[in-house]
Design brief:
Length: 195
C-alpha cells in the first residue's frame, strides 16, 4: 500500500519547510521530509547559461516528483514542500502520485509578511514570493489550509495532524485529477457500455 504524501504548497517564504520540520516531530508514524530545495542543492555549482537554465530546472522538478512518487509507492510516508507556480508541475504530480493517498495542504501567508520574510532571509531573489503569489494557489482546491501570517509552524503542524484521521473521499487530488487530467478515452469502451 502506498505511503501517505502530505503535500505542502505555498510561495517561497510561506513557512512550508518550518511546518514540515514540526510535522516530523508531531506525527505518530515515521515520515520523510522531501523538500525541493534539497534537490536543487544537489546540483553541481557550475554556472549554467540563461538559455539552459529553464530546461535544467524543469528536469530537476520532474526528477523530484518521481523521487517522491517512488518513496511513497515503496510504502514510505512523505512530507513534501512544493511551489505549484507553474501549471505543468501540478499536472505532473497528478499523473504520478496515488491521488487517494495525498493530503493537499495550502500554506498561505499575506503578501506583506512574505515580503518581510524574504528581505529578512536574504537568500531568495527579491520579489520571488510576489511573483508566485497569484499563481501558486490558482487551482483553489485543498484538503486543508493554514495561514502562517499569524499562526506558527507548530500550530499549523498540529492542525494538519488533527485533520489526517478525517480525510475526505474523494481527496482534493482525486477531484483535481478528474477536472485537470481526465482519463483518456479507451477505444470500444463507449460501445461496450451502451450495449
Amino acid at each position: 500500500m502506498p505511503g501517505l504524501i502530505i503535500f505542502l504548497n505555498g510561495t517561497s517564504s510561506s513557512g512550508k519547510s518550518s511546518i514540515a520540520k514540526e510535522l516530523l516531530q508531531v506525527l505518530d508514524e515515521p515520515y520523510f521530509h522531501m523538500p525541493v530545495d534539497a534537490f536543487h542543492a544537489m546540483r553541481t555549482r557550475r554556472e549554467v547559461g540563461p538559455e539552459e537554465l529553464p530546461e535544467l530546472l524543469r528536469r530537476t522538478w520532474m526528477g523530484f516528483h518521481r523521487a517522491v512518487a517512488g518513496m511513497a509507492e515503496a510504502g514510505n510516508n512523505v512530507v513534501v514542500d512544493h511551489v505549484l507556480s507553474e501549471d505543468w508541475r501540478l499536472l505532473d504530480c497528478l499523473g504520478l502520485f496515488s491521488a487517494r493517498h495525498v493530503v493537499l495542504v495550502g500554506v498561505r501567508c499575506s503578501l506583506d509578511e512574505l515580503q518581510r520574510r524574504e528581505q529578512a532571509r536574504g537568500d531568495r531573489p527579491a520579489g520571488l514570493a510576489a511573483r508566485q503569489f497569484q499563481r501558486v494557489h490558482a487551482h483553489e482546491l485543498y484538503d486543508v489550509e493554514c495561514d502562517t501570517t499569524a499562526a506558527g509552524a507548530l500550530d499549523c503542524a498540529r492542525q494538519i495532524k488533527a485533520f489526517l484521521p478525517r480525510r475526505p473521499i474523494p481527496t482534493a487530488f482525486e477531484r483535481l485529477r478528474t477536472t485537470l487530467r481526465p482519463e483518456p478515452a479507451v477505444p470500444g469502451r463507449e460501445a461496450a457500455a451502451s450495449s
